[in-house]
Structure formats: C-alpha cells, structure tokens
Write a structure and sequence with these properties.
The protein contains 9 helices and 7 strands, in the order βαβαβαβαβαβαααβα. With 242 residues, the chain is an alpha/beta fold. 44% of the residues are buried. Belongs to the short-chain dehydrogenases/reductases (SDR) family.
Length: 242
C-alpha cells in the first residue's frame, strides 16, 4: 500500500515520510524542490520515490493524484506545506494573503480530493496553533490555518461514508532547519528554555503522531486535531509579567 507525503523535503514532512516508510510498502515523497524530495527518498531507500510538484500551481492536485494512481491505492496521505510571511496586517499584500490560502487549505483540499484511497485510508494535514490563536504579524498564515481546519472537519464529515478518516496534527514550536535559518541557533536555544517542557519539539515527534493516526489503533478517529506542542497552547493564556 502507498503513503504520499507532500512537503517531504522539509523537516516535518521528511520525518513523516521516514515514519510511514516503516508502515507502508511504498512512500511517494512530494516537494516543489525535487532535490529535497530525492534526498528524503534516498534516505528511506528502495521503497521511496520522489516527485516535484508545487502546491501553488493550478494542476497540483491532478499531478500528484495521477502519479499516486500509478503506484496503487493510497493508505495514508500527509499534507505538510504552508506559506508564512511575518508582516503587520496593514502592510500585507493581497498576493501574499492569496498565496497563504492557495498553498494551505486550497492545496490540501486539491491534494486529498485527487487521490484514489484504499479502504480505511488516513488523510492527515499538518496544522498549526495559528488556527485558533491570532498571532500578530501573521494574518495570512492565521487565516490559512483557520480555513485548513475547516477543510479537515468538512472532509471528515463528508467522506466518513467512504471510510476515509481525515485528521490534523497540530505541532507546537518544532526545531526544523527552516526555524534555524529563520531565527538562528542562539535565539532558538534561549526560546527553547522558556517553553513549558524546556525544549523545542522534534520533527520525529510530529511524525510519530502521524504514524499513530495512520495505524489501526486510530481506526475510529476522524475529524480530530491531535496537538503535539509540549503544553504550549495551554500556556498561552498566561498574562505578561504574571
């Protein structure tokens, strides 16, 4: 059976692809950066293939769906890409907002809809605490994840009679190469010590949650949001200075 991971060239997506390689016969690693997808596939071994596809393109869902159909029915599909720009809302461009929505909820929907599912298929979107928390200077990303949450809920509702389970894994602050590039090692080390568990999460911890949702043990779980954030979301209500 086949697993398909979009964003497999990234930290979380790559970890998900490696996790699912132990659960499925074949893993299709999809990323807009073919080299990154190939590196993940090579690290997995002979049961992994790479595909270049950009979630921002109009034909994205059809392209991935067609390639996946050549390999067999999909037992697990993971969508692990998003577009995020940090800028005050008053300065946010329409183009940036639309890109967040296109790469986020629209891309996820088109990806899931384009697949040929196996019986009992598990579809998982990598969500964000931004779905419910209106972090400043992230309007596009906030809006995109709010919409992605409704995509997950709606598909779980509509596709239940097809035996397809649709869920989300919601990470906290995860240590990935992208975060290191954005913030720098020193700033991340300082921030990590201030998190509730005293450290950032690891991509493998998100992948383990995805693996669980893909397993028989999660066979009655659909429409759920599995939060893997080290208690970060429950700590956000703390008032500054208190």
């Amino acid at each position: 059976m086949l697993a398909v991971v979009v964003g497999a060239g990234g930290g979380i997506g790559g970890a998900c692809a490696r996790q699912l390689a132990g659960q499925y016969a074949t893993v299709l690693c999809v990323d807009r950066d073919l080299g990154a997808a190939e590196r993940t596939a090579t690290a997995i071994g002979t049961n992994a293939l790479a595909l270049a596809a950009d979630a921002g393109d109009a034909g994205f869902g059809r392209l991935v769906g067609a390639r996946a159909a050549e390999l067999g029915p999909v037992g697990c599909a993971v969508y692990a890409v998003a577009y995020e720009e940090h800028t005050p809302a008053v300065e946010l461009t329409r183009e940036s907002l639309m890109l967040s929505l296109t790469v986020g909820p629209v891309g996820a929907f088109e990806f899931f809809r384009g697949l040929t599912p196996a019986e009992g298929a598990s579809y998982v979107a990598i969500g964000s605490l931004h779905e419910k928390q209106p972090f400043a200077n992230c309007l596009g990303y906030n809006a995109a994840h709010g919409a992605l949450g409704q995509v997950v809920r709606t598909l779980a509702h509509e596709w239940a009679d097809r035996g397809i389970r649709v869920n989300a894994v919601v990470p906290g602050w995860i240590m990935t190469p992208g975060e290191e590039e954005l913030y720098g090692a020193e700033e991340l080390a300082t921030a990590g010590r201030l998190l509730p568990l005293g450290r950032h999460g690891r991509p493998e911890e998100i992948a383990a949650a995805v693996g669980f949702l893909a397993s028989e043990a999660a066979g009655y779980i659909s429409g759920s949001f599995l939060t893997v954030d080290g208690a970060l979301s429950t700590s956000l209500a703390r008032l500054r200075g208190v």
